[in-house]
Amino acid sequence: xxxxxxxxxxxxxxxxxxxxxxxxxxxxxxxxxxxxxxxxxxxxxxxxxxxxxxxxxxxxxxxxxxxxxxxxxxxxxxxxxxxxxxxxxxxxxxxxxxxxxxxxxxxxxxxxxxxxxxxxxxxxxxxxxxxxxxxxxxxxxxxxxxxxxxxxxxxxxxxxxxxxxxxxxxxxxxxxxxxxxxxxxxxxxxxxxxxxxxxxxxxxxxxxxxxxxxxxxxxxxxxxxxxxxxxxxxxxxxxxxxxxxxxxxxxxxxxxxxxxxxxxxxxxxxxxxxxxxxxxxxxxxxxxxxxxxxxxxxxxxxxxxxxxxxxxxxxxxxxxxxxxxxxxxxxxxxxxxxxxxxxxxxxxxxxxxxxxxxxxxxxxxxxxxxxxxxxxxxxxxxxxxxxxxxxxxxxxxxxxxxxxxxxxxxxxxxxxxxxxxxxxxxxxxxxxxxxxxxxxxxxxxxxxxxxxxxxxxxxxxxxxxxxxxx
Length: 470
Hints:
Layout: H1 4-7, H2 9-25, H3 30-48, H4 54-78, E1 87-100, E2 103-109, E3 115-119, E4 131-140, H5 153-158, E5 162-177, H6 181-192, H7 197-208, H8 213-222, H9 232-246, H10 250-266, H11 271-288, H12 295-309, H13 317-335, H14 338-342, H15 344-360, E6 363-364, H16 367-393, H17 399-422, E7 426-427, H18 434-448, H19 453-469
Parallel strand pairs: 3-5
Antiparallel strand pairs: 1-2, 1-4, 2-3, 4-5, 6-7
């Protein structure tokens, strides 16, 4: 039998750090949260290992110590107070323009790479992504939330590198554009605007990470919002395209890496896209050097790298969903069970429900069959959309080429709306409790790593117990 300690140490280390952050988030002091996460990690290793010897024991002890150090480091980064900067001035690059509640805001980056938030006001109406601005402004801390909602704007924006909000901006001067990925994204955005309505909305979501409000509401109602959020599925399609074009040799892997990160940055470098790209890149590096990687361990390495870069990623729902979905999909694939493959949409539907259901107001039964069909059907729809979008990007407007994509999306919308009308019932928000989902996930990971069935059941119970505690 294989060993979790030998095969997925990075995933175990990621688990230790995440558990300590979750414990502190639930109100426990750090001095108690870290021992609890260490105990959970130790129990998991004890249940999974059948044989112990001196070298393995030393490695397990080192992993436990490293988990504690990792947790302390993450918490120290999170406890850093609001920025001490009271005012800023100089040149800023507009990294994003978006709707934020009832107002529009700009996400700016300065010469040091620090992010700032600025509300669109007088003199900024015509500013777009990729522009350079010169201004002076005072800095106020990001708002932490309200008693009426658990959503924290501070955590949301800190996960995206924003340090504070700019107020009373003065001496605003538009400096034009310089070549950057943001100006390239704006160029693509302008090219895609002339596509037919549905084709434009989906192409902008997949290529740029822009989500049209009407399209977002439709996909939320159908239960397939993840199709619009650039994640591992989209990165996987980009990698498949790269392999078809460049091949799978060492030179082909280099070109695939460029395509991979080019797509990640062009699509907005969301948490899920960066996580997926890091994971795939780790796997490609292993293939390049002749050592095929372990997918579950690669997820752990990618998650650790992102938390070291920015611990606020932990609070981002996209990051949480991305990691859980990646672990579940990889574990289901590695189990090599025809039964699990058949029921994989149901398993994924259940495992992600504790995070999605509170936002949707329940677990909608109609989303299960729609999700089961969506991955395969949208691979075809996306091919038609991208085939229509490419000539538009190059300045060639072929309306006849956009017609199939537009019709496919209209047919899908009619069918999905009809299904939602037939089966509108929703299960309660907590119908699938978090402890049950955690137990299933631990069980699947154990099976995927060839742990004996008895120990896999014990690990599933351990995962459920950990979810109850944390």
